[in-house]
Recover the amino acids of this structure.
């Protein structure tokens, strides 16, 4: 399997938030959706992978062997990239 524990949420969060963001706000909803996904992934991943008890499986919630919370940086990067591309007019999402 390519995920362990609840690591699949690192893919589910951006899929849902970007789709909802686009449906509610058009293109500006896409980077907002990625930003929300990054925030959700970070906080949920940190909560699930906390090391309160060393006997538990620390960082057991992974996607492609990367702890879930670190996928938040990728979603934040996508939000920044989509924002910059939109400001430059090169995103390809412009409506005619």
């Amino acid at each position: 399997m390519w995920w362990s524990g609840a690591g699949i949420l690192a893919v589910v969060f951006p899929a849902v938030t970007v789709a909802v963001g686009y449906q509610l706000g058009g293109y500006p909803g896409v980077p907002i959706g990625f930003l929300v996904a990054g925030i959700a992934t970070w906080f949920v991943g940190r909560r699930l992978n906390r090391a309160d008890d060393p006997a538990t499986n620390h960082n057991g919630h992974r996607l492609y062997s990367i702890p879930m919370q670190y996928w938040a940086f990728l979603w934040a990067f996508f939000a920044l990239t989509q924002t910059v591309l939109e400001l430059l007019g090169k995103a390809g999402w412009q409506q005619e």
User: Anything to note?
Assistant: The longest helix spans residues 29-48. The helical segments are 9-25, 29-48, 71-88. The chain has a mean pLDDT of 87.
